[in-house]
Amino acid sequence: MYDIYNLACDVTQCGIKVFDYFLGYRLPEYICGRGFINRLPQMLKDKGAGKVLVVTEKALIDLGTAKKMLGPMDEAGIEYALFTDVEQNPTSDNVEAGFRAFTDNACKSVVALGGGAPMDCAKAICAKAAHPRMSTRQLHGILRVHKRVPLLFAIPTTSGTGSETTLASVITDSKTRRKASINDPVLIPKYAVLDPELTLTMPPGLTATTGMDALCHAVEAYTNHFYNTKVENIMAVRAVKLIYDNLYKAYQDGSDIDARENMQIAALYAGRAFTRGCVGYVHAVGHTLGGLYGVPHGKAMAILLPHVMRAFGPAVHKRLAELADACGITGSSDAEKAENFIEWIEDMKRKMNIPEKLDMIKDEDTDQIIKWAMREANPLYPTPVLWKYNDLKAFIDSVRE
Ligand SMILES: [Fe+2]
Predict the structure, then answer these.
(1) Helix or strand holding residue 179 (H, E)
(2) Ligand 1 centre and the CA of 125: distance in Å?
(3) The CATH number of 4-18+203-399 is which of 2.60.40.10, 1.20.1090.10, 3.50.30.20, 2.60.120.620?
(4) For all residues of the chain together, what is the average pLDDT?
(5) In angstroms, what is the span from residue 37 Cα to ligand 1's centroid?
(6) DSSP state string for 181-213
């Protein structure tokens, strides 16, 4: 039933749509190619980066991936401090510790190496550098930074998050466990290096879930569409087609460098699509699962995506049919094409050993999950269907094992 709540959300979204035209959406200046990580030191020098804080994960040190970047930096005499205290779902405590490392080492710039966790943590450290007296919680929201931040270089080692091109930094509050984002165009990294060789060490499970995260960004941005310009629509369609053609190849054969390269580009396009087009209830519900239970982001996305799209019903048939057309998925009507597209996602999940439903939700948490999801999504995300409390309750009940 359309009521005052719907009206308030619609009016707010109209305001955001107008406001969006004045925001500086952009891609980072990026270079893309095999072995291009060797060009990073010169880039740091050319851009006057000074001493940098490298934000990464311990796992990338252990795997030897970080060495591929740090080796050339050492050879070129680039000064840096290393910060690796980043959890899988980065917390406000991680951000505070990273900010201390930034100031204690008199760093001027930040290099984020890794997936979404180090990149989001690095963005939040940059936001803190602009506002040292504000807590991470105070920075959560839209346009709270709005000030010059240190130069940020993004070096993705997964192909999913798109954080190298987005304005968002998703951080879990260490006290409340609520996951929320800092959104500001100043947090879009200035520079990025996409080197597919850095993604070769990703195990199949991570390849699957991060790739599904990228798919989720593109599908949610494309089905939302209210804020989109032509750019976001084109980026989303290209990303979906690249994922359709390459994700399973990269999962089956991690050394397939062409598939790896295409997935990196897909993640970048999908990230650009949703940074204006926004995500939707897949992310709003999925973020709560990351915060409360530590569910990896990509896994939560992969589980929820087909269920959310099917629950939207006819409201998304046309848009999903267009994505099906782009991939060559056939059907005799928009509804049938949309269903076949959803079934392709489900088939990918099965083939890549991703669970069909959620098995971690506790009864006593349901109310909190719904409230946090509503707070994140409504009214900011222009979802194809507006879900209120009872809609989200019914949805969550339907995706629990
Ligand atoms: Fe995501």
Answers:
(1) strand 179-183
(2) 20
(3) 1.20.1090.10
(4) 95
(5) 25
(6) EEE-GGGS-SEEEE-GGGGTT--HHHHHHHHHH
Residue 298 Cα to ligand 1 middle (Å): 7
Whether the full predicted model's pTM is greater than 0.85, yes or no, is yes
Alpha carbons 275 and 181: distance in angstroms, whole number = 12
Q: Give 51 Cα–ligand 1 centroid separation in angstroms.
A: 31
Task: List the domain boundaries for the chain.
Answer: 4-18+203-399, 33-199
Residue 24 has pLDDT above 80, yes or no: no
Bond from prior residue into 296 cis (ω within 30 degrees of 0): no
325 pLDDT more than 80? yes
d(CA 68, CA 79): 16
| CATH fold of the domain at 33-199 | Rossmann fold (3.40.50)
At residue 273, does pLDDT exceed 90? yes
List residues, by chain if needed, whose CB lies under 5 Å from ion ligand 1. 213
Digit-coded pLDDT (tens) for 25-48: 888 999 999 999 999 999 999 999
CA of residue 269 to ligand 1 center, whole Å: 13
Q: How far is the CA of 196 from the centre of ligand 1 (A)?
A: 20
